[in-house]
From TrEMBL:
The keyword Transmembrane applies. Keywords: Membrane, Transmembrane, Transmembrane helix. It comes from Winogradskya humida. The keyword Phosphoprotein does not apply. This is Phosphoglycerol transferase MdoB-like AlkP superfamily enzyme. The chain crosses the membrane at residues 7-27, 39-60, 67-97, 117-142, 162-186.
Amino acid sequence: MSRKRRAAGWALTGFAAVIVFLALVVPDQVTRLPAGTPVWRAFVRVPIEALVAFAVLLVLPRRARMIVAGVLGGVLGLLTVLKVIDIGFFAVLARAFDPVLDWPLFADGYRFVQDSFGELGAVGAAAGAVLVALGVLIGMVLAVRRLAAVAGRHETASRRGLAGGAVVWVAVALLGTSFVPGVYVASDSAVALARDGIGTVPAAIRDKKAFADEAATDAFKDTAGDQLLTGLRGKDVVFTFIESYGRSAVQDPTLDTIVHAALTKGTADLKTRGFAAKSGFLTSPTAGGGSWLAHSTFQSGVTIGNQQRYRSLVSGDRLTLTSAFKKTGAWRTVGVEPGVTYAWPEGTFYGYDQVYDSHTLGYHGPAFSWATMPDQFTLKSFTDQEYAKPGRGPLMAEMTFVSSHTPWAPIPSKIGWDQVGDGSVYTQQKAQAKTTGEVWKDKDLIRAEYAKSIVYSVGALVSWVQKYGDDNLVLVFLGDHQPAPIVVGEGASHDVPITIVAHDPKVLDRVSDWGWTDGLEPQPAAPVWPMAEFRDRFLTAFGPTDDTSRPLSPPR
């Protein structure tokens, strides 16, 4: 064999060893290393899986060795793909990928890319992801087989190296050696990943049964309609979710400056119109995404932390906040969902009399990245089609704002309410706004634009109350979840602000024992409840009391 061919062979073997080593030791939370920690420290590891695998391979005859090496390579390739997905999930959703329950999220991810970058971009991204996954699987099979073949040709050296590696692994395991907190030199991360993946199957089965028991327990299931929400009769009640509005927006020093100013001004502006507010915190079941999990938790009063629970919930008959209003017969119930771009049968489960989606809100302007329309337009369309109708009865509406959805660029600007029209006015706004590509080149700029998007959404809502709100309006607005870790950092809480705004002081009197703080901005010491508790607390606060089972004000 020529020297060049020998050198090329050793180079290829070295490359195979490197990719196998990296597949075994790269942490699935590599982006969550402590600040200032050199990344290389996370790779100073001795993987037990490699030692065990090559010990097995060395005792097998050549033919069996190559077959087993191929199987081990395939398993390692699959685990590597799952680890890459985990890294993405931790970066976006601040949690690991669940290989049993999370597959539907890929469809949502595809739709997000499609809405942000067009059909061609989505197809290209999906095709690229599939090709990369196949490449990893095939490449890992070839790499392990090559290493097995080389080890077989050099058995003596391989056995010595294996014995030395085993001694080192035992030594650093006993010493607990670690160059990065929580990342030990004696590595077994691939085994742990496989164990956790397999463990999700029985965990999912147990969770399904646990959820069935939780959902079956409902203190308000058999409450008669005339005993529900008696303290709000005659009121218009509007629940509004502000996308990605998390606790960090009001308490992170790098974000809250302009948000604090907007909330302070909003509180003062509403006060001039006779409105007051109280605010607290809820803990969302999700972070970074999965808004529907938060919405369904808030509505149903049970924690919906995964897709299996969501599917079980919407296929059942659990009382939601919307259906509680509907059960009374005293409200028309409306859902305003600009982010819904396809069939949404869940609307029936929630109990809406009418659902307005991206196709029926009448928008004829440009999309702002994922956001199909600006929040101000959503409010104006709701006002024109429902809220401002003459002679109507009381309304209960659930509305979802989308302008503060990632990637927070471009962001619309607030305009006069009489300028909104059919939305075509936003064409020029979008052309002049920062693009996603411009913003996502700089982490600091991403954070700044996120804060601006929250200010826009909250500002649109406050302006709407000033313009259209009357004595009978009760507004509840809250975040669905914290934004991605790229904005809030690692380890951020799942808390989101929630605020009740009302003109009639008797409404806020009903929640005076909640301990919430005055104004649109909850203070750091404000109470924090699980989001699943809100439904029951709300229905209790506004249900019959000893001194009043009559409306707070006469129906219209």
